[in-house]
TrEMBL record:
Belongs to the KAE1 / TsaD family. TsaB subfamily. This is tRNA threonylcarbamoyladenosine biosynthesis protein TsaB. The keyword Metal-binding does not apply. One of its GO terms (biological process) is tRNA threonylcarbamoyladenosine modification. The keyword Plastid does not apply. Coiled coil: none annotated. Pfam families: TsaD. InterPro entries: ATPase_NBD (IPR043129), Gcp-like_dom (IPR000905), T6A_TsaB (IPR022496). CDD domains: ASKHA_NBD_TsaB. GO terms for cellular component: cytosol. One of its GO terms (molecular function) is transferase activity. It comes from the Bacteria.
Length: 222
């Protein structure tokens, strides 16, 4: 019998959930600052759509950040609670790798640059590359930078990079050598392929073994 995975994404202004049960069922809604109110109803909705009982779930995967502080805490709390109650493993997935996976799903992009709004004059940045084993490599590049720092990083790159995220309009870059796509927020359906890869590699945890990514401690004034 195949594994059943529940995926939860609350790191930005949208909430989304997905169930993997031989195929992917997903649901997305705009949350703004109402993550707490909206996420549980859409979890119950996706369970109903997929004809899945909560007790049938084998793994829970969620976006562990970077992103909205409140949204990440909510997704983390729900995932921890379900993991503890159901006695099943959880998988924390980087928000940026989820965005990169969406670029792969839609455009077959293998080299992805992510820029997301963080705070005034601060932007989340990451550079992800899909390797021969379909794993996204780039977690160590995740950082919180000013626009000029990001420009300095990307203007030394060559062609074939796909740009995703909601803040490229703030970053000066050479438009002719990059391919900007309309991917502005992560979706839970893109957590599923990443979760499956990690499950195969046995990279999952108990409910009390993971760290949330905020990145604030990486910001410098240089």
């Amino acid at each position: 019998m195949s594994n059943i995975i529940l995926a939860i994404e609350c790191s930005m202004n949208y909430c989304s959930v997905a169930i993997y049960k031989k195929k992917i069922y997903s649901f997305l809604t705009k949350c703004e600052k109402k993550h707490t109110v909206k996420i549980l109803p859409i979890i119950y909705k996706i369970l109903k759509i997929s004809n899945t009982k909560l007790q049938e779930i084998n793994y829970i995967a969620f976006s562990q950040g970077p992103g909205n502080f409140t949204g990440i805490r909510i997704a983390t709390g729900i995932s921890q609670g379900l993991s503890c109650a159901l006695n099943i493993p959880i998988l924390g997935i980087s928000t940026f790798s989820i965005l990169a996976e969406q670029a792969w799903r839609k455009y077959k992009a293998k080299k992805v640059l992510v820029v997301m709004n963080a705070q005034i004059n601060k932007f989340y940045y990451a550079k992800y590359i899909k390797n021969s084993k379909s794993l996204w490599i780039g977690e160590k590049t995740e950082s919180l930078l000013r626009e000029n720092q990001i420009s300095n990083k990307i203007n030394n790159l060559h062609k074939n990079w796909t740009l995703v995220g909601n803040s490229w309009n703030h970053i000066p870059y050479k438009k002719k050598i990059f391919d900007q796509k309309d991917i502005f927020f992560p979706h839970a359906k893109d957590i599923i392929p990443l979760a499956l890869l990690n499950i195969n590699l046995k990279k999952f945890m108990n409910y009390n073994q993971f760290n949330i990514k905020y990145l604030d401690n990486l910001f410098t004034k240089k």
